[in-house]
Amino acid sequence: MRLPYVIFTLAMLASVSTAEAIPNMWTSGFGMGVTEYIISSPEKVIFNLNCTGNPDEQNILQHGVLVTLPNGTMLDSHDDGTEITVVMDNSQYPLPSSLGWRNGDNAWVSFIDTLGQSSNFDVYVDNNKVGSFSPGLKNTQKELSDLSGCRTTHYSD
Questions:
Q1: pTM as predicted
Q2: pLDDT at residue 7 tops 80
């Protein structure tokens, strides 16, 4: 199940032209059951929030974050060896590598709730700051107005 997700995500990212992206402004799109919220920094770091409607074998919705560095290196919050932490409003939000367990689900929902109201945030990978994003509150509230699909971690018909 993970390989098709990665292939789909790579295809979606390949279709996004980062050269034309305006820094610090959220954009969103939907395709094949996945909603993506994407923002780039002035330093050309791309933060991609993926909210899926496609459950895994245990009916868990494995939402995630991809961070693409200026050199093209893509980091995935699902990778066990990669720690992605988002800092907003003087609080840190370590992203779980999987969902479907209480602490991971709680951490994810706290992250989503705060992100939807944040006018700026920093992203750290393995305790190293890789990007700063300042979309402004109006842009965040407009583009991230309905993150309910990102809050739900268990699929139901």
A1: 0.85
A2: no
